[in-house]
Structures are given as structure tokens and as C-alpha cells.
Amino acid sequence: MAIFKKNFWRGGEPWVWVTAAGLTLVMLLTIGFFAIIIINGLSALWPRDVVRITTTSGDVIAGEIIKKEFRHDKLHRLQLKTANRDVNGYDFKWINANTISETSYPPDIYVLERLEYGNFIGYLAENNPPHIQRHFVSGELRHEIDALVARIDAVHMLIGTYNDQLRAEEKNTPVNQENIHRYQNLIGMYNHGAEILEQELDTYRALFITADGKEKHLRLAELIRFYQPERMNIFAKTVHYAKKVEELLFDEPREANMEGGVFPAAFGTVLLVFIMSITSFPFGVLAGIYLGLYAGHGVFLQLVRVAVNNLAGIPSIVFGIFGWGFFVHGLGSSIDELFFVETLPEPTFGTGGLLWASLSLGLLTMPVVIVAVEEALRAIPSAFRDASLALGATRLQTLWRVLLPAASPGILTGFILAMARAAGEVAPLMLTGVVKLAPSLPLDSTWPFLHLDRKFMHLGFHIYDISCQSPNVEAAKPLMYASTLLLVVIVLLMTGSSVWMRSYLRKKYSVSSGF
Amino acid sequence: MEKDAYVMELDDGILHVKDLDFFYHQHQALFAISFAMPRHQVTALIGPSGCGKSTFLRCLNRMNDNVPQARVLGSIRLNDLEINQETLDVISLRRRVGMVFQKPTPFPKSIYENVAYGLRILGVRRRGEIDAAVETSLRKAALWDEVKDKLQQSALALSGGQHQRLCIARAIAMEPEIILMDEPCSALDPRATKKIEELITTLREQYTIVIVTHNMQQAARISDCAAFLYEGKLVEYNRTDIMFTAPRIRATEDYITGRFG
Questions:
Q1: Among A170, A269, A366, A426, fewest CB within 10 Å belongs to which?
Q2: DSSP A291
Q3: What backbone phi and psi angles, to 5 degrees, belong to B225?
Q4: Could you tell me if residue B162 is inside a domain?
Q5: Alpha-carbon span A507 to A502, nearest angstrom
Q6: Which of A296, A397, A509 sits opposite B121 (nearest CB)?
């Protein structure tokens, strides 16, 4: 028996099991992590059922069931999203199970998504005018309201233009009183017109009654969409879901980022990683080539190598502070003093912006690229270098035609790691130019199209903002999960395309597959 | 060691080496090597591991330039060109003296591009010229029939023996006068080795070949002359048939017959 035991330990079988257990643990953690993000992210935008609860004390509450808590396998309490923040002063409520006397799912109850105050849940009053009533069945007033809103916007734009011209006239010397009067009259006229249009828009309003009987007039222009969850079949719900996903991907955020879309944040994330890549990767590759091919192994160069390797482990906030001090206040302020004197003291580059954030991230990821390039070049057997040189190639030709192609899969691995790291970093951005709400995208149709000085939004910061900094964390939860899923998907897409390219290059250029 | 006229100066010699010393840092690896290699013949360099055969071979196309702290003293003449001088154009020398390495080194490119590599770095652009050179070289390297239908495929997909013939074709494409081979068969199986040996025998009609080998039978089969190096010194140099049947030095006989080394 003792011999068997000895062999059992000597054979290494237990060690195999220990390593397998380690892998299993890691896999479980990863799967759990992705499951939470995917399940919550995907279900966040699905329309929920609205329940109507009568309590034992006679109160009536309606809302979407957000969470159920069980104690001893019995429903203990549940959390409702009651919405109607402007009417009640709250929009989430916990209800103890033992106070519930009656539960129903009323089919005629509406969920309204509004521009302000979050959702509204209630019944459409019966004494609304017939065309208003019909609108909530067929949406027939949608075009009229949209047209009115568009006209009001146009009038406001005109007023803005005339205001600009008026200000320009006032600066002229000598002052042309006639023109000034003309502009003032025009502005007054259009202001009056805008008021009339606003009043007309104001007539499109509907009376709603909450579950507990309170009345509320709602302007139709402020409603984004409305639906009756109990009357929707799976198909209607899917259409609703698709529209919500479209809104998430392509619309601006609303209500302190808690509603609406995340397009500017997603766009900012991709643009940031892109600019970071094109500004920092070339330098990383050059440094890696020098260290991998030409540099010797003296004390100084070994120190450089150690320093580069350790640079990758420095906390990212340190790079943020460096970017803030060196780029924003050092370089940026100097640029302003040299090229943007006319706008000072208003800073142009002397404040956080896309360029400085990209460069700070570039510094953060450069060691990853340098090390990857160096290792990839060293992994190529020296015989390849000799073979090329023996054919009369110069060192540059050898590098360009043999070594770099052979090292390209390894170099791309470095790029993938660097991009993935850059896309997920938030801390350095907070010091170098990310904002919770940017007035305009850093890329638009006005010259010079790419505005590197502008502040920008970022998905990672967006998630931090709505989950930790928003006035209503509970209301922001669905969007938080959806944004998280989106960030993960964006990173996977960016790195996935590089992984695909790498496998292609590997097939083409791998120097070891021949042996 | 004896120095006779035959060793020092040959009428049909192409490479004349005289008093060649090689130092790596403080360590001397070659000691006063002098002999001449005949044109259009195969010269084999034999000797135990670490005797300096490869180092000697790499002096002939200045590959040791890339070795830090290496110094070469003495004279190597290719016809009338002094190889071991500072001002030599190394690039053009290496076009005249091709080299094939122990481990096959096909570049991660297509078969066609591998053979065309030397021409491309020379700046040759005319498609017809490159096409012709690729075909001629592959034919000379006895590889054409095996790869003519897949020239654009990756060279890495070929077998080890084909790799080595591809490397020979790549060297031939530069139209060198001399081809240096550093144990070209040591990584190959016997069948691939046989093919390379046959190839070497046909190539000697057009090129001068200097080959390093550990395989005594191979040296006997393919070489016309043989040089036995031991501990950085040239022990014996003679026609292969004479050296293998009647070596003048005891150490040579011991090595050839496998009693040491």
C-alpha cells in the first residue's frame, strides 16, 4: 500500500489536478463576470410588466417590479419602479409582502418615457379630447408635433443669428442706428412668433391619472414614447427593444446621463484609442526595434530594459498626473501663449482635451508595445538575419523585408494588449480631459474636423459617473449595465479584429512553422 | 605543419588564404591558416566541433563582421580582390560569395519571393528578368519540378530538404562565383541529404564550393579537396582521395577513421 501511495504522489497526478482546479476557478470567475454583464446588459432595455398593488391599508401603487427578496423561500418584499418622480417625489419603493392584499396587471396602464423627470406610469383620462385619445392608440399627432418642434427650433436659430448680427453692428463705428433698430425689430418679431408656436404646442397635452388617483397634465412634445406593456406581445416588445438599443447606440444622453443614449461616450472611447494608437505605437515600435536588434547588453541598456518593463506596472493615475502637469499645464499652456494669444485667458490647449488624454494613454501603453516588439524580434532565430545579410542585403533591408514581417504577429499582440488596456483606463482621463457631458463631439463637419483640444466623453467614465455620481443611482442602473456591456463589446471588437489579423499574419509569416 | 607549394598557391585557385588569424575578444580561434581553394571544385573543411571550421568559412564572406569584438588578421584573396580589408564593399562581396546555413532558413514569403529576394534587394524590377532568374535558379537547385505549380505559395509549407534546396536556389540566383555551405545536411534526413549531395556534385561544374561537414563519408563522396582543422590550426590539406587513403599526419588518420573527434 505504501508503495502505491508513493507512486501516486511521484507520478504527478495530484499536481495535474491542482493546476486543473486553478484553471477551473479562473474560468468560473470569468464566466460569472461575463454572465452578470451580459444578462443585465441585455435585459436592461427590455420592457417590464407593470403591476398594480393594493395594500392592506388601502393604498394603490403601480410600477415595474425591479427586484424580489426572499426569506425562508417566501417572498419577503419587492422593489417597484413607481416612476412619477414629479408627482410623488420618489420613483422607487419597497413593499413588504405581508402588506399586499391584491395584485393585478392592468392592461390599460401606460408607461410614458419623458424628456424630464423620468418615466410616468398611469392611466389615460377619459375626458381628453378625441384626437388626443386617438393619438395614444395610433400616434397620429406625432407628425404635427414634430413639425411644430422643428419650426420652433428654426425660429430660435434665426433669433440667434440676428442676435449675432446685432452684436456685430453694435461694435461697428460709427454705430448704424438704422440697422440696429432693424435687427431689434426682427428679433422681437421672431420672439413673438416663437411664443405663439410654443402656445400652440402647449395645446397638445393629455390628462393622465396615476394609480392612486392623482391627475397630471403632460405635454405631448415632452413624450419620447409610450407603451402599454400588458398589451404588447413578444413581437411588439422586440420592436420596442430594438428601438431602445438604437437609442442607446446613436442618441445623446438625457437627464444627467441616466436616460437616452451613450453615443458620444462610445464615440469618444473609440476615437481616444485610435488617436492613442497612431501617436504612440510608431515610437514604441522604433524603441522596440532598437532594443531588440541594435542595443547591446551593457549595464546601462539593461537598466533601460528594466525601466521599460516596470513602466508598464506603474499605476495609471501617475500617468494621469504626469499628463496633467506636463501636457496640459506645460505643453498646453505654452501652445496657448504662442498660438492662441487672442483667446487668452480662456485656455485652448491649456486645459484637458482629447490630445492630452491620448498622449497620456500613449505613454501608459508604450512599454507594452516596446516589450512586445523587442521580444518578437528576439524570438526570430539569428540564422534568418544571417541568411539575409549573406545574400548581400543591408541591415535596413533585412529588417524591413525579413525581420519585421516575421515579427509582425508578435508586434500585433503588443498592439492588442495596449489597445485593450487603453480602452479600459479611466483614471488618467479624469485628469486630462474627460467630462460627464461634452457639448460637442471632437469630430464634426467644421474645420479642422478633428478637434483635438475639445473635451470628450468616455464609456468608462460614463459608467463611473452614472453608477457612483448620479443623483438617482437606482434609475441609472439599466443604462449602467447597458453601457458596461457596450464597453466590453467595443473592446472585444477592437481586439478581436486585431486577433483575426494576427492569426492571418501568423499563417503567412511564422518562421517556426517550417520545422 | 608542413607548407608546400601545392597548399599555398594554386594555378587554378580561386581563393587564396594566407596567415589568417582570428581573434574573438582575447581568445584566438584561428592560427596562421594558409591554403588555396581550387576553382570549380568542392573543398571540404573537416575537423572536430569547435576547431574553427565555421569561423573560417564565415571569414570568406565577412559574416564575422556582425560578431562584436572579432578581429581578423591575414589575407584572403578572391582572384585578385583582397577580402580582408576595411574599404571592401561587403555587400558586393556577398553577392559573389553566397552562403547556405546549417539550418534551412526559408524567409516567411512565397517560394518565388524567396528566390527573387537577392534580386529585389539589388533593385531589379523587370518582371521578366526576375521570372527567368527564379526558374533558372530553381532548375539548377533541382527544385523546379517540385514547386513550379506553387511558386506563389508560402515557402514554409515545403519539407526540410526542399527548404535547403530553396536556400541553395536563393544563393544561386545571385550568380555567385563561390558557394559556402555550413553543414548543409546536418538537419536533414538521409534521403534529403542524398539529394543535396547529388546537387553539390552538379553545381561544382559552374561554381566553386566550400563545405563544412562532420560526415566523413560525405566529405569522401563529394569533395575534391579536403582540409583538416584541429584546434584552430590547419593540420593537413590535400586532394580528398589522397588524404582519405594515405594521410600524411597521424591526427588526420585518427580523425578520419573515427578514433577521436
A1: A170
A2: I
A3: -125, 155
A4: yes
A5: 9
A6: A397
CATH number of the domain encompassing residue B92? 3.40.50.300
Chain A with chain B: Cβ pairs closer than 8 A = 83
Tell the residue number behind the cell numbers 512565397, with chain if given.
B110
- Model confidence band, residue B3 (pLDDT cutoffs 50, 70, 90): very low
Q: Is residue B229 part of a domain?
A: yes
Q: How many domains does chain B have?
A: 1
Task: Determine contact: B101 vs chain A, CB below 8 A.
Answer: yes
Count the alpha carbons within 13 Å of A135 in the hemisphere toward its beta carbon. Answer: 21
The distance of B218 to chain A (nearest Cα, Å) reads: 24
Containing domain of residue B124, as a range?
Answer: 6-256
A130-153 burial, b at 16+ Cβ within 10 Å, e below that, comes to eebeebbeeeebeeebeebeeebe
Residue A394 touches partner B, C-beta closer than 8 Å: yes
d(CA B191, CA A334): 72
Instruction: Give the 3-state secondary structure of residue B248.
Output: coil
Task: Pull the grid cell for residue A488.
Answer: 466590453
Helix (H) or strand (E) holding A493: helix A473-509
Q: Residue B201 falls within a domain, yes or no?
A: yes
The C-alpha cell that represents A232 in the structure block: 404588447
On whether residue B149 sits in a domain, the answer given is: yes
Of B107, B102, B193, which is closest to residue B156 (Cα–Cα)? Answer: B107
Q: C-alpha grid cell for residue A450?
A: 478633428
pLDDT at B5 exceeding the cut of 50: no
Amino acid at B153: Q
Q: Is B50 on the interface with A (CB under 8 A)?
A: no
- With DSSP H G I counted as helix, E B as strand and the rest as coil, what are the percentages for chain B, rounded to 5? 40, 25, 35
What's the complex ipTM? Answer: 0.89
- Cis? peptide before A347, omega within 30° of 0: no
Cell digits of residue B18 = 594566407
pLDDT in tens, A141-185: 888 888 999 999 999 999 998 888 888 888 877 878 888 888 889
User: By the 8 A CB rule, do A373 and A407 touch?
Assistant: yes
